[in-house]
Amino acid sequence: MQRKTAPNPxxxxxxxxxxxxxxxxxLCLYFPLLPLEIFTLTMExxxxxxxxxxxxxxxxILMCNTTAQSQGIKTGMSISQAYSLIxxxxxxxxxxxxxxxxxxxxxxxxxxISPDIFLHNNHALMIEVSSCLKMHGNLNNFLLFLEKKSPxxxxxxxxxxxxxxxxxxxLAQQYFLDSSEKKFQSQYLEMNALHDLPLFLMxxxxxxxxxxxxxxxxxxxxxxxxxxxxxxxxxxxxFICQLHDIRGESTPALEKFVLPDKFSRxxxxxxxxxxxxxxxxPLQRLLSELSNDLLVRQKTLRQLKITxxxxxxxxxHLLLGLSQNRQAxxxxxxxxxxxxxxxxxNYTLQAPVILLSLDVEHFFPLQQQSDDLFVPQKSSxxxxxxxxxxxxARLGPNALQGMSAQEDHRPDRAFxxxxxxxxxDPATPLLLPERPLWLLKxxxxxxxxxxxxxxxGPIQLLKGPERIxxxxxxxxxxxxxxxxxxxxxxxxxxxxxxxxxxxWYLHGIFS
Amino acid sequence: xxxxxxxxxxxxxxxxxxxPVSQLPAYAELHCLSNFxxxxxxxxxxxxxxxxxxxxxxALAISDECxxxxxxxxHQQAKQEDIQLLIxxxxxxxxxxxxxxxxxxRQSYGQLSALITHCRRHAEKGxxxxxxxxxxxxxxxxxxxxxxxxxxxxxxxxxxxxQFYNGSLWIGLNLHHHADEALKKQRLYxxxxxxxxxxxxxxxxxxxxxxxxxxxxxLTAIRQNQSIYQLGLDLESNAEHHLRPLKTLQNIYPPETLxxxxxxxxxxxxxxxxxxxxxxxxxxxxxxxATQYLRELVIQGxxxxxxxGIPDKVRKLLGKELLLIKELxxxxxxxxxxxxxxxxxxxxxxxxxxxxxxxxxxxxxxxITEVDPALNDLLIERFISKERNxxxxxxxxxxxxxxxxxxxxIYKKYGRDRAALAATVITYRTKSxxxxxxxxxxxxxxxxxxxSKAFAWWDKRAEYLTRLQESGINTNTPTMQHFVQxxxxxxxxxxxxxxxxxxxxISQGPLSQLVPIExxxxxxRTIIQWDKNDLEALGLMKVDILALGILTAIRKCFTxxxxxxxxxxxxxxxxxxxxxxxxxxxxxxxxxxxQVESRAQMAxxxxxxxxxxxxxxxxxxxxxxxxxxxxxxxxxxxxxxxLEPVHYxxxxxxxxxxxxxxxxxxxxxxxxxAMVAAGFSAGEADQLRRAMARWKxxxxxxxxxxxxxxxxxxxxxxxxxxxQICQQIQGFGEYGFPESHxxxxxxxxxxxxxxxxxxxxxYCCALLNSQPMGFYSPSQLVQDAKRHHVQVFDVDVNKSQxxxxxxxxxxxxxxxxxxxxxxxIRLGFLLIKGLKKQSIEKLLQARHKKIFSNLQDxxxxxxxxxxELETLTRGGALAVLSGNRHQSRWQxxxxxxSRPLLNEKLLQDDAITLPTPSTGQEVMEDYRHLGLSLxxxxxxxxxHHPELRHCKLAAQLTELGxxxxxxxxxxxxxxxxxxxxTGVVFITLEDESGNSNIVVWKNLVETQRATLLGARLLxxxxxVERDKKVIHVIxxxxxxxxxxxxxxxxxxxxxx
Lengths: 511, 1056
What we know:
The structure holds two protein chains of two kinds.
Chain A: H1 12-19, E1 26-30, H2 34-40, E2 49-55, E3 58-64, H3 66-70, H4 79-85, E4 90-93, H5 96-109, E5 117-120, E6 124-128, H6 130-136, H7 139-149, E7 157-162, H8 165-178, E8 184-188, H9 206-214, H10 220-224, H11 228-235, H12 237-247, E9 255-256, E10 263-273, H13 280-297, E11 299-310, E12 316-327, H14 332-345, E13 353-360, E14 364-365, H15 369-374, H16 378-381, H17 384-395, H18 411-414, H19 417-421, E15 438-445, E16 447-449, E17 452-454, E18 459-470, E19 478-487, E20 492-498, E21 504-510
Parallel strand pairs in A: 2-4, 7-8
Antiparallel strand pairs in A: 1-6, 1-7, 2-3, 5-6, 5-9, 10-13, 11-12, 11-13, 11-14, 15-21, 16-17, 18-19, 19-20, 20-21
Helix pairs in contact in A: 8-12, 11-12, 13-14
Chain B: H1 3-9, E1 28-29, H2 45-54, E2 59-62, H3 71-80, E3 84-93, E4 97-102, H4 106-121, H5 132-138, E5 143-147, H6 155-164, E6 169-173, H7 181-195, E7 199-201, H8 213-224, H9 228-231, H10 246-252, H11 255-267, H12 290-305, H13 312-327, H14 331-346, E8 351-354, H15 361-365, H16 380-383, E9 395-399, H17 403-414, E10 419-427, H18 430-440, H19 445-454, H20 464-470, H21 478-490, E11 494-506, E12 517-519, E13 526-531, H22 532-537, E14 543-548, H23 549-565, H24 579-586, H25 599-608, H26 613-622, H27 625-629, H28 633-640, H29 651-657, H30 667-678, H31 682-698, H32 702-714, H33 719-732, H34 739-758, H35 760-768, H36 778-787, E15 792-793, E16 805-807, E17 824-826, H37 837-849, H38 855-862, H39 866-874, H40 879-882, H41 885-893, H42 919-930, H43 938-942, E18 965-976, E19 985-991, E20 994-1000, H44 1002-1007, H45 1009-1014, E21 1017-1027, E22 1030-1040, E23 1053-1054
Parallel strand pairs in B: 1-2, 2-3, 5-6, 6-7, 9-14, 10-13, 15-17, 18-23, 20-22
Antiparallel strand pairs in B: 3-4, 4-5, 8-9, 10-11, 11-14, 12-13, 16-17, 18-19, 18-21, 19-20, 21-22
Helix pairs in contact in B: 2-3, 4-5, 8-18, 18-19, 18-21, 23-34, 23-35, 24-34, 26-34, 29-30, 30-31, 32-33, 34-35, 35-36, 39-41
């Protein structure tokens, strides 16, 4: 946590509470398993999975799913030990970017609790709730409200309310450590509950922890008993400030959540997806987040961008244009999925997918409600065929990007369609030796007469062979002897003979 | 159509059709890299030689890049095939030129070797630097072939080369069916004309067969540290860099360029067989001859060894040995070793020789060994045999903390140009192969790790595919198939050269004339480019200067005993064959001893019941893969106990096996059996010995085993006997344990056992001060000492030294120590983790005047930093000054940092009472900062816990009967999975009373894998199994209680 010395202007209400000598109420929604869940929510429960954490050169387990846990994987265990327990264990590195995205999404979900939301440590939301307590009448009602709202989220969450942000945060962490069976749990505790909390919950480094335990301190209560000056001298100003924050005597600097102007969510798959159908389930998740996002924003959208990522090739972007602006409604996800199914029906994956993301770049203001009243659920009543027509018209072939050119001995790989069709700079220096300007998309077999290749008459071999035998690694190996040949018309051709079958082909034409 | 015959007449353009075959040309390949040009060459030197011979090449040059590392292997192979081997090397010169230098005769070879040495020594390990001036300086006579960059030839270089090496320079033409080869040919012909030098054909070979291309591409990817997908044009465009059939070469190259290969071949007539080793002359004083000098030294030594007169037996033995040494011209060898040992003795460095020649009466008289020939029946003939004509082998072990002094002595005495370490060729092993191939194929790191783990340390290679499938990896994808195939192929490929553990080669003239020398990764170390097998193959002498921890401990112990008891012991003077010492050994009480300390050895001691020195020789050798895999252990034990009759098939066999009751236990016996029972010639037996040492790497044992079985069958030996011998040969493998080594080790076993038996305190203290070494941690050693009634005291700021030391004056009742009384051990500051010796030196200086009275006094007089003070507190060394750890740490933490000019003052203002640490906390802190605790054993603290309620103590196991049910708990101090016991894992548990041995059978290993591998504190429910004094608990259920330990740090010795 970053500490700023200046008072935090983001908390006027809180300051007000103190000024009026009233206790503020702070809620912390702590998502302990968020780093893990961003991966596991799109995979089978039964596969053992763990997240790794790197400290200098040591790689160890940060957290793991229950399947892995039941087979003996523990936090802090070295990666090699983990593999020796479960050889088929899937291990991924923490993905802080995805985690931030997910936490922001949760903040959007929490927007109707209170707009005063702060993101903390990439796994917790701090929410100022003093004002909304009034709205709910009392604390109990508010907790009930939370309980009722909780099934909307897929993540484990432990919620605590007390009279300081950091206090609530520590209590929420302890609450999860004490009982983690329920997916959602909430509590209100008085400030004196902080006394029993263990020191390790504090934001302190290993050497400070060592120093504290070395003199026999175990709980926050132990520290509260010691004169501040003595602690200050030994553990520094930041430490004292943290204690103040925990006790609610000061407020920590927190990052207030602001709605981003774009929607962007990415899922990195742990295992490669090979079937188009496998994309539907994760897309459903992303769409439901999008739906929630639209609701909070009170906006509509007209275009979705789906990005597929592959291991060895460039990402592919698919645009899904919509005939009219869409807003969030109960069957938004269903409708979009139906559209995507159509989109994918005649689409084949060029390689296994390892990444999926959903982006909305522009939002549009919500049209007046009355419009919809007159044309209720218009989109869903359209026939699939009509939709398909619409989609095809809108997507067009340009939505697909071709493969890029790359250095390769194999002419088919070195000269991709793109480099022939696109207006690429012809002066691009190629390290390859003499190559024809025109390369056939597919080599064309040549007629053989008297064991000699012919092409509307005899041809004469001028130069060669250039033997190209390469490409065993990516399922397109070739073994060919290339020649430059002259046709009786004077044209120069690039032809080859395959080494194994001894067949002749035309591959290119020199201008 | 008319155009085609025309085309075929052009020899450069052919259709691989039917060329006008007349006669195949004579050809010698002059440019060929083996896999000793690391990550470029894709075939072993042996493969290249065989393939070249098969194709009918007249000669093959192995011309690795600035290296001669692969030539000995190639040479051995070439001797078996009908092909001449040329020795050469390739250098990258200037921007784009390649130069090949081939040795024409012995001097020329020496020049090449010296050039390589120069280039390598002037660059970082693994690299070289070369300039034209270097070539000019070193190379006088040789064949030089330059491969210029035909696009942009370095004319200056060509000019210089052709002027300086006129008649010895060729321009190389290498054609590989690339696009612009017509142009290349044209340009090279022009250059040839311009510089009036002939063109010669060369293949720039990287592999023996085209099918290796996959591997060659992979090596390129590994070298460039990229995946194969990213390499693009950096890969070869085809597989033409292999040894091509003569017919193909004839079609590609102009005939005159092929003919030139013959001219060159005829010029090169050097063979590695011409290398003669010359011993360093300075080991013999001027004016004396070696035989006479050795004899003088031996007689002089014998007089010292036996002041009352040399026993007759020994006198005869010495005569016989000296004669043998003279006949085989080994005087210089013995004198060289003597010289080194002499240095060590003069410096007080303890050493002990072992190896085929070490246990001779001559070596005893030269003080190379302490194994007394008068007491033992060890004949040198057994170790050096005339008919085998192998160089004698003496390995000398030195104290591990002082070996560097010996090495520096050798460098200083003989100079770096005459002494260097042998290389060890580091080859691809399964793990490194999986990692590198995986990366080359673009697999991601976690997947590679997963695949690497799928191959557990106990799996056989053949099971790998199955293991991968089990771990959820689809092995049917093309990438995975490539992966498995490539891993298989790259295994045993050399990866880089490293230094041998201690094999020195010392020569009379500059060593670099014999073999190139390069820098090792360690500063101030140089290695030669050959490994010990290469040296052996060429019959070159090597002395092994090894480090042995136990010698450090023994020497330290002798020093303590001298101070303590005023007696000067040496390994030779300790009372021999002491009954009490053997009794201790028979009880398996061997913690901390040399060699017999492992769990398997401990279990063997009560069964074998050693009573003589020779029993120890057998004890050392029997618990090893050879005898175990050959199933020789049980027959030996039975015969020893008289439960099975000993009988010999004939007198020949009796002679070989009598001393081990008819059961072959030593490597020498197996080799001798091959000769006596299977009719191996001396030469074949020697080959067998070498194959045994190498079989793990090369797998070349099979033909020997077949021959052995056949030979024994013909001589009517039972098939089972032959089968056992074969198994045993396999088991010896790299762990081959010859009797000659066992005898030297047995002496150290006896010495350490005597010390532990009579001087447990001094011995334990010496062991603790020689750490890290051996099998046991300081904690285990201290616990063992305490069980032997030795008092051990905590680190104390007012009493401890840097090292551990012996104390007796502070013991209440003792003012002088009687022989029966043991001193106490005072733990030293070195035990405290994170403490530097310099800070303690300051402290000791201050304490010398007066001991410290309180923390402030310590602070005032030592100027130690708060961090140093805190480290002392953590280690409990300040307990005497400030009560408990909490209080003293609080005070030290309160010191104001960074006031260098003012004396730091402890802050008394915070008179705060902190919670007193509990015993548990103290023990935990002890373990964390000292690695041991004298207060209480962690298990003792947990005894009251319900989980441990019904658990027995380790010491109580002796009271329980065979097959009794038992529960026992302890800290896991060891996990072992012997290769010789299929699937069983042995666990050692430690509690406050001692150690217990748990056996976990295979099925339980599978079902309780997690607990087995992960638990630090383990409870076992099982059944007691007793065999005499050996007690095991056969586990039925394992329960992980590690959570009870909290943060206790306690390391286990796993799977070594």
